[in-house]
Specification:
The complex is a heterodimer of chains A (216) and B (726). Chain A is of the alpha/beta class. Helices cover 19% and strands 26% of the residues of chain A. Chain B is built from 27 helices and 26 strands. Classes of the chains: A alpha/beta (216), B alpha+beta (726).
Chain lengths: 216, 726
């Protein structure tokens, strides 16, 4: 399983994802600078969290114009796996690879803390290691994580993760993570790379990466 | 000749001007005078503190770099070293809280970067007025958002610090930011060496922002200060993130960079003069080569601009092109603005024409160092007397009042706005000291900041000792061996003899304690003139400390672990001097804080051993709010109750709310009581009760004084800040 982690100017969770994939899961992984366009040999593209282009204008709004994004689109169209975490999720919606948009948190404040989540689908390549309906814990860390879409009925079947109990950011229908119709592009606000080791308080995130590895 | 008024605008006295003139041997022109004024400002020149700071112990077996560079550095093991530094951004935050705090973060991060280290964590020590004041709430929320806005974006986790809310900080909040970073091998230096080598300005372009910020920071705040808002710089964290990555990539791929220097207060002037001074050389700068974002800037504006996110490099001549592509890849300026020259002067050219030239040492070593005129405040003795304490009807209610005070309560309103997890090293935060793991290593790091203005106000020598001791004790309680100190000393106007006395006594106390506990001070910062028309801040030293935990197995945390564990206190609680209790009950800060340095040294040594030997299940330092508050926190964190019963000759309030130090609460397995008592036989040790699954119950001399439900305690404690901030 070859992972490629895209680095935009301002990305800051790239090295965290790299560590989990390389040092915890022992999978081959490389960084891909946003100006590159070659995804040869990559099985899964990771768009990590951070503040690409400083989140200026709107989170993810500038990054979607980076050269690598047209390659990511092609890659996804061919069925390649793409996971966008936090800012990566924002970029995927901006780029039209996932429906909907992410707005400011209801509190208008940055929120960094663990939240409870419920697994709505375990038939995606990203959630094979979970049970449907299982409650897990992962941290969120974002300013613009309030998912919104005009017609929720259109994506009802694409919801993979929902906030369970408290909705931290005002997301519509408690949505925390969705896939595209085909199921090979996944965007989520929580940070699985931050909870992939016992020493950090939870290993629930590691199961997402493990699912990806198992899916191939 | 310049008039007094003219000089006052740039915070210079006529005497200083005359001294500068005689050192120079002629009248300085406007550009030169501007450069002298910023370098001779208190903020850059440390002219009122230099002599006193020599009291600090600065050496030790782990020290790779002591004071004098961008940051101090200690050795962690054969390959890794840690850079640390704390700095204040008080004045800018008082008038423009968001940008003031944000650029404070930016500056300290570049100091760490200048040592060649990757910044891995930030801590913030914040002091404000009382939250019932709307302006305080504006300042508080602005500062917190500023720290969050900047720190979160650059991907450096904010993992700790502390908060206090006291009246003297109403108009002049304290914003002290600490950063630590990791580097492999030898630290970099902010030195210019090698005649002919290039001076390269990297990062952002230079604008007209922050001109004379350093002189502004060296004045008291007045109602006109708000008009100096243009002296506050604006930060661009995105640019800073690019700068971090570009510098680290350049250092990894090339050894052409000889020296690195942050460009902070006094901009190009101070960074070039400091680099030249450390290298024993001169520098020549062509101002037209400085990338500018505004048209028509004068040489003076360029030399004094405090535009953020810039650094100055000394690069080996002829090898500039090796690293230029790295900076260009990250979209940053890479401008060769000058070179190292033999003659020890800072020479400024505009289109090849010399527009200013000053001896390097006139801007650095020869900045005047004043002897402080000190006088012990007369009111002090009277302040040591505690008036009669009214009869307490309900101790539980007092405890809840203290726990619900923003000075003791939970701080998640603050730290949940900070990304405290990025970099995936954060193991524990929110208690006395935070814990970070170091990837690939068995050991972990403990970090803390501490400093109680109230204690120093009542007794600066003792308060200074306590600031150091409490930081150390916080580290010991998590199982970390303290390694080094960085500090921020926040005081009023040092030309006032009483303030000067406070400053000197505080530094003496800190030095004495640091020496006794063998913890060197390796970097720091002094902030004077923290006063306004109505208030002078408490003399407030803030100590930042880093320690090393042997392994994950020897981490200790303060929360109670299990029902049935026996609770002991080490040390002797009982002194109400300077306590929060007195302030709450009497509405004033009074009494004399007490501290026993010899006991501290003994206690720390034994306690660390006890933790490493796994004798102890939890350890908690008793400080603000006293024993009752400390026990309540252990209950909250462990979600367990207590049944405590203390026999004493002191009053219940002394025992429950006294803040004399050192006192530590520990819990141990019931079966090991004998062993523990034997282990700590050289210390005052008292068995006070049990951890239970029930209520929070405290009896003194057989009288049940407190009986509270844990959920109720938790609720009050968690809403202390939120009830004001929403």
């Amino acid at each position: 399983m070859n992972f490629g982690i895209v680095v935009f100017p301002g990305t800051n969770c790239d090295r965290d994802c790299y560590y989990v994939i390389k040092d915890i899961l022992n999978q081959p992984v490389r960084f891909i600078w946003h100006r590159e366009n070659d995804l040869k040999g990559i099985d899964c593209v990771v768009l990590p969290g951070g503040f690409s282009y400083g989140d200026y204008l709107r989170a993810g709004a500038i990054a979607r114009f980076s050269p690598i994004m047209s390659s990511v689109k092609e890659f996804a169209d061919k069925g390649g796996l793409v996971i966008g975490i936090c800012n990566g999720f924002q970029i995927l919606t901006e780029a039209g690879l996932l429906p909907g948009a992410l707005g400011r948190n209801r509190s208008l404040k940055f929120i960094c803390r663990y939240v409870d989540l419920i697994i709505e689908r375990n038939d995606t390549p990203f959630t094979l290691e979970f049970k449907k309906g299982e409650i897990i814990r992962m941290p969120i860390a974002h300013n613009e994580g309030s998912y919104y879409i005009d017609d929720i009925s259109k994506i009802e079947k694409q919801v993979v993760l929902r906030y369970y109990g408290e909705n931290p950011n005002g997301a519509i229908d408690n949505i925390a993570g969705i896939v595209n119709e085909r199921g090979n592009v996944f965007g989520l606000m929580p940070h699985p790379e931050r909870c992939s080791e016992k020493i950090l308080g939870s290993e629930d995130g590691l199961r997402i990466f493990k699912s990806i590895v198992r899916s191939l | 000749m310049r008039t007094r008024e003219e000089l006052q605008r740039i915070s210079m006295t006529l005497e200083e001007y005359q001294l500068a003139k005689s050192l120079l041997g002629r009248e300085p022109n406007d550009l030169e005078l501007g450069m002298i004024a910023v370098m001779w400002s208190e903020h850059c020149g440390y002219k009122h503190s230099k002599k006193t700071l020599k009291l600090f112990p600065t050496t030790g077996p782990y020290v790779l770099q002591g004071p004098g560079e961008n940051a101090g550095v200690i050795k962690l093991d054969e390959e890794l070293a840690l850079a640390m530094k704390m700095e204040s951004h008080n004045h800018p935050s008082a008038i423009e809280p968001y940008q003031g705090a944000a650029t404070g973060v930016g500056g300290i991060v570049r100091d760490i970067l200048a040592m060649g280290a990757r910044p891995i964590a930030l801590l913030d020590s914040l002091r404000f007025g009382l939250l019932d004041n709307p302006r305080t709430r504006y300042l508080f929320s602005g500062v917190v958002s500023g720290i969050a806005g900047y720190g979160n974006c650059i991907g450096v986790p904010t993992v700790g610090g502390e908060l206090a809310f006291e009246k003297p900080y109403t108009e002049n909040p304290l914003v002290n930011v600490m950063c630590i970073g990791l580097l492999n091998g030898k630290p970099k230096s902010g030195r210019a060496v090698g005649i002919g080598n290039s001076l390269v300005l990297v990062g952002a372009s230079t604008g007209r922002d922050g001109i004379h910020g350093a002189t502004f920071a060296s004045l008291e705040l007045t109602s006109e200060s708000i008009e100096r808002r243009p002296a506050v710089q604006a930060g661009d964290p995105f640019m800073e993130k690019l700068l971090i990555e570009a510098i680290l990539e350049a250092l990894e791929k090339s050894d052409a960079i000889i020296g690195i220097q942050d460009m902070g207060a006094a901009g190009i002037t101070s960074s070039s003069a400091e680099m030249a001074s450390r290298g024993g050389v001169g520098v020549e700068i062509e101002v037209t080569r400085v990338p500018q974002r505004e048209k028509g800037m004068t040489p003076e504006e360029i030399m004094l601009s405090e535009s953020q996110e810039r650094m100055l490099l000394c690069v080996e001549k002829g090898r500039e092109e090796e690293i230029r592509p790295i900076f260009e890849k990250w979209g940053l300026n890479f401008a060769i603005i000058g070179e190292v020259i033999e003659e020890r002067v800072v020479r400024i050219k505009e289109n090849g024409r010399v527009v200013g030239e000053l001896p390097t040492d006139l801007l650095t070593e020869k900045v005047p160092a004043y002897d402080l005129i000190t006088e012990k405040p007369k009111k002090l003795e009277e302040l040591h007397i505690i008036r009669e304490i009214p009869r307490i009807e309900n101790y539980g209610e007092i405890l809840l009042r203290l726990l619900g005070s923003p000075n003791c309560s939970a701080s998640n309103w603050v730290y949940e706005q900070y990304d405290h997890m990025v970099e995936t090293n954060t193991v524990s935060i929110g208690t006395g000291a935070s814990i970070l793991r170091v990837k690939g290593k068995q050991y972990l790091l403990g970090i803390t900041t501490d400093g109680e203005g109230r204690y120093c106000y009542l007794d600066p020598y003792t308060g200074g000792m306590m600031a150091v001791a409490e930081s150390a004790r916080n580290l010991i309680c998590i199982g970390a061996e303290p390694l080094a100190i960085t500090d921020c000393l926040n005081f009023g106007n040092p030309e006032d003899p009483e303030i000067a006395w406070y400053f000197v006594e505080t530094v003496k106390g800190m030095s004495e304690c640091a020496r006794r506990l063998n913890i060197p001070v390796i970097s720091g910062n002094v902030s004077f003139y923290n006063e306004s028309e109505n208030y002078t801040v408490y003399p407030t030293p803030v100590v930042g400390m880093v320690g090393k935990i042997e392994s994950i197995q020897t981490i200790c945390t303060p929360g109670f672990k299990k029902e049935g564990d026996t609770i002991y206190i080490l040390g002797e609680p009982g002194n109400l001097g300077g306590s929060l209790f007195i302030e709450e009950i009497l509405g004033e800060v009074r009494g004399r804080p007490s501290f026993d340095l010899e006991l501290e040294a003994k206690l720390e040594r034994l306690l660390l051993k006890g933790i490493r030997d796994k004798l102890i299940n939890s350890a908690q330092d008793v400080s603000r709010g006293g024993l009752a508050v400390a026990l309540a926190e252990c209950s909250i964190w462990g979600n367990l109750g207590v049944d405590v019963s203390i026999e004493t000759e002191k009053t219940p309030e002394e025992i429950l709310f006294g803040e004399g130090q050192p006192v530590v609460i520990i819990t141990v397995d019931q079966e090991r009581e004998k062993e523990v008592e034997e282990f700590f036989r050289d210390l005052p040790i008292k068995r006070i009760g049990k951890v239970t699954g029930g209520n929070f119950v405290i009896k003194i001399n057989g009288n049940q004084l407190i009986d509270l439900d844990i959920e109720c305690i938790k609720k009050v404690w968690s809403s202390g800040i939120e009830k004001w901030m929403g």
